[in-house]
């Protein structure tokens, strides 16, 4: 670049920056693309099917499916802490064990225990099924709308209009309606996952009047290991303004009194709706997208919204099912070989990594159980390991009196070594997207224990040509226990040891950092198998397992996502291996569990058009796999409706627009040519909020806000052109370097930087 060109470009960009600086300051808390958000609202002529047409409102802890039955409006209420935590283990076999040093194990393959098959509990339970009486003279429904921007459902009949909100600031449902509310127990209304009644094991709710309020009390019993719990609902009204408060004994020692207090409080407030809508406006101001492809655009907004209805900081974790049209399958557990992780892996790129906190907290709360299970199931091991099925309010095993200490475990489920690392990938996302010391300290107690577990197992595995032969283990959800060098285990063990090495160094635990490094050096290569149709190898499922004939959760390509081991910047041969693996996996998948992750993996390799086409095949409204439903959510093949893991579709869309794997920011890395797109404040690793547009295939209006400072690495959006970076705080040019078309510059916390291509004047 010549000096004169540099000076002219500098002057021009300074004028542009000066003119927009004050505007950006004003708009920092505004919703970036309000028309796109409004367009994602869901409008229906009726809500007669709770599963396909129910509209969800929620505040991250309490949610409601709004639906209709005849001329009634009904609300199926769920709260994240409402669980029947009983596990009946008296007839179960002893917990299987894996003696790595002796290379043997106990337990029969695939024998589901009576504690799993004979009982519905443990399970999450809805709180109530609330009914609003028919309107006088009503003969039909006109329409219903879910307004994502305001988190509100409006239902209109031929006689009246009613609105429903779950308040962001309280665990209270606010209803504006002249209809009368009736609280109903769940025992005669809700069914289990197979459609069977639950009245034989769920007690009837007690309903009474108190001070002009209607009150419901639902007891959930416990057993010798777990205490039961009580759920209280209180409803009252002032004119057409009606409230339902929900409080449980898990959160209050006096749940009824607290529920009554909340109901009175909200009925007396004047700014309730204003506060609620301000909270949601703040939420939506954090990020947004505007795409020519309105299908993907709607999917993004609806999934971000759905995530927020059941996740919030300092809230409780959700199980397999986030709202309860019926009870969730598989005991609604946090299934830790992909399902639960996929939920919370959504949060980082959409700039809401705080929504990962419920997952961090549930692992921390149950860490004593994980330590006990590690030493029980893997004698001689250190650290912590969770069985595949985790329930959120497990008792401390040291206090348990039942057989197996209230633990459900059988072969082969629960014995994939990689599951600890799969959970670690979520913990690390929580840190990477906001790399603060506070966040590192929050995840460290868990990550440290996972690393100790892996080090202790690896050090017992036999060495073959200087590399560990890892096992015996189980490849998640395929085959039998007793295999070695599972690609699932290798992926997540390498990931955990790498993350723990870095974290241990930052935390001053040098000995553990060295131990992780030593074990990393002894990790084996991935098993491979020849795919004759592609003329090259693909990643196999385990050592000597041959060419995979069946793919389930997508373990074979998880080195792309979520572990970021293979990135756009990796060796071409490695990327080609993963590309072939994805191609083969598509041939042998049953399209149940891998439909999101496989398309994120495609996006990581730049295969955006292919990823979009496959996603629409899997999730389109006319799909026979996991079709989009009229309510804007997705049916999940075999699993059912309202599955929590579907929210990761929002991350899939985000990955088409912005990637930062390998700590290099890439703009529109997998967005198809010929399609316009815009995004605002999507989050890159390192805590960098990124905004950009692509119009007529030209990237423009690129800005990066640094939340924590540090170095930005940005792939040049304009290859072979020079780039200038300006700080918007002072309109000064920032020093940059460029190597291999990657621009680097140092940032300051809180500053926004505008990135421009240098073009001749």
Distance between the termini: 13 Å
What's the story with the biggest beta sheet?
9 strands, antiparallel
Number of domains: 3
* Quaternary structure: single chain
Task: Using the alpha-carbon principal axes, give the shape.
Answer: globular
The total count of helices amounts to 18
Q: Could you give the count of β-strands?
A: 35
Low-confidence stretches: 1-26
Main-sheet strand order equals 1-10-11-12-13-18-17-16-15
Structural class: alpha+beta
Relative strand content: 15-25%
Please tell me the CATH architecture of the largest domain by its name: Alpha/alpha barrel
DSSP helix fraction: 25-40%
CATH class term of the largest domain: Mainly Alpha
Radius of gyration: 27 Å
Mean pLDDT: 95
CATH topology of the largest domain: Glycosyltransferase
Could you walk me through the main structural features you see in this protein, from its secondary elements to its overall organization?
By secondary structure, the chain is α+β, with helices and mostly antiparallel strands. It folds into three domains: 3-30 and 673-757, Immunoglobulin-like, CATH 2.60.40; 36-86 and 121-285, putative glycoside hydrolase family protein from bacillus halodurans (Beta-galactosidase, Chain A, domain 5, Distorted Sandwich), CATH 2.70.98.50; 288-663, Glycosyltransferase. Helices cover 30% and strands 22% of the residues. The protein is built from 18 helices and 35 strands. It has a nine-stranded antiparallel sheet with strand order 1-10-11-12-13-18-17-16-15. The chain is globular, with a radius of gyration of 27 Å. The model is unreliable at 1-26 (pLDDT under 50).
């Amino acid at each position: 670049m010549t000096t004169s060109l540099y000076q002219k470009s500098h002057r021009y960009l300074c004028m542009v920056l000066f003119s927009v600086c004050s505007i950006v300051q004003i708009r920092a808390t505004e919703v970036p693309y309000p028309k796109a958000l409004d367009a994602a609202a869901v409008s229906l002529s009726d809500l007669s099917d709770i599963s396909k047409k129910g509209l969800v409102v929620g505040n991250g802890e309490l949610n409601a499916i709004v639906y209709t039955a005849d001329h009634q409006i009904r609300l199926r209420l769920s709260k994240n802490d409402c669980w029947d935590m009983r596990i009946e283990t008296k007839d179960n076999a002893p917990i299987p064990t894996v003696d790595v040093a002796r290379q043997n194990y106990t337990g029969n393959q695939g024998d589901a225990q009576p504690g799993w098959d004979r009982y519905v509990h443990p399970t999450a339970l809805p709180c109530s099924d609330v009914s609003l009486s028919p309107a006088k003279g009503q003969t039909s429904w006109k329409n219903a709308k879910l307004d994502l921007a305001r988190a509100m459902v409006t239902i209109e009949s031929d006689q009246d209009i009613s609105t429903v909100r779950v308040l962001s600031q309280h665990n209270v449902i606010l209803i504006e309606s002249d209809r009368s509310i009736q609280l109903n127990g769940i025992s005669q209304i809700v069914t289990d996952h197979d459609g069977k009644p639950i009245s034989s094991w769920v007690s009837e709710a007690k309903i009474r009047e108190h001070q002009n309020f209607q009150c419901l009390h639902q007891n959930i019993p416990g057993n010798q290991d777990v205490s039961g719990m009580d759920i209280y609902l209180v409803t009252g009204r002032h004119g057409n303004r009606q409230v339902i408060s929900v409080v449980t004994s898990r959160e209050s020692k006096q749940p009824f009194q607290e529920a009554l207090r909340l109901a009175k409080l909200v009925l007396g407030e004047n700014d309730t709706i204003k506060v609620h809508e301000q909270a949601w406006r703040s939420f939506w101001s954090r990020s947004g997208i505007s795409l020519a492809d309105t299908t993907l655009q709607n999917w993004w907004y609806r999934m971000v919204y759905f995530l927020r209805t059941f996740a919030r900081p300092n809230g409780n974790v959700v199980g397999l099912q986030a709202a309860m049209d019926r009870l969730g399958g598989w005991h609604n557990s946090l299934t830790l070989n992909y399902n639960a992780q996929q939920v919370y892996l959504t949060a980082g790129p959409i700039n809401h990594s705080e929504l990962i906190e419920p997952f961090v907290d549930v692992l921390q709360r149950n860490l004593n159980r994980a330590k006990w299970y590690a030493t029980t199931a893997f004698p001689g091991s250190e650290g912590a390991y969770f069985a595949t099925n985790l329930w959120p309010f497990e008792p401390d095993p040291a206090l348990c009196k039942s057989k197996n200490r209230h633990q459900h475990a059988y072969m082969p489920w629960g014995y994939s070594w990689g599951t600890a690392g799969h959970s670690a990938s979520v913990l690390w996302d929580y840190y990477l997207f906001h790399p603060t010391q506070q966040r590192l300290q929050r995840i460290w107690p868990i990550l440290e224990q996972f690393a100790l577990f892996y080090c202790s197992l690896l050090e017992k595995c036999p060495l073959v040509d200087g590399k560990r032969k890892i096992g015996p283990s189980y490849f998640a959800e395929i085959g039998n226990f007793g295999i070695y060098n599972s690609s699932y285990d290798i992926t997540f063990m390498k990931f955990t040891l790498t993350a723990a090495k870095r974290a241990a160094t930052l935390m001053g635990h040098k000995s553990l950092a060295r131990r992780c490094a030593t074990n990393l050096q002894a990790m084996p290569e991935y098993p491979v198998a020849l795919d004759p149709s592609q003329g090259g190898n693909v990643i196999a499922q385990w050592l000597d397992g041959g060419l995979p004939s069946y793919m389930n959760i997508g373990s074979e390509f998880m080195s792309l996502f979520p572990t970021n081991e293979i990135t756009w910047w990796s060796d071409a041969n490695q990327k080609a291996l993963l590309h072939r693996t994805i191609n083969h996996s598509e041939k042998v998948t049953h399209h149940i569990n891998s439909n999101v992750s496989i398309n994120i993996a495609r996006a990581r390799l730049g295969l955006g058009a292919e990823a979009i086409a496959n996603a629409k095949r899997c999730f389109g409204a006319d799909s026979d796999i996991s079709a989009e439903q009229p309510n804007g959510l997705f049916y999940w093949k075999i699993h059912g409706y309202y599955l929590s893991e579907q929210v990761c579709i929002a991350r899939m869309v985000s990955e088409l627009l912005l990637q930062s794997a390998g700590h290099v920011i890439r703009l529109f890395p997998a967005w198809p040519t010929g399609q316009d797109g815009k995004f605002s404040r999507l989050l890159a690793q390192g805590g960098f909020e990124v905004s950009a547009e692509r119009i007529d295939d030209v990237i423009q209006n690129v800005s990066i806000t640094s939340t924590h400072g540090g170095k930005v690495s940005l792939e040049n959006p304009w290859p072979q052109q020079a780039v200038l970076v300006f700080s918007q705080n002072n309109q000064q040019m920032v020093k940059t370097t460029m190597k291999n078309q990657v621009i680097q510059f140092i940032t300051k916390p809180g500053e926004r930087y505008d990135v421009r291509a240098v073009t001749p004047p």
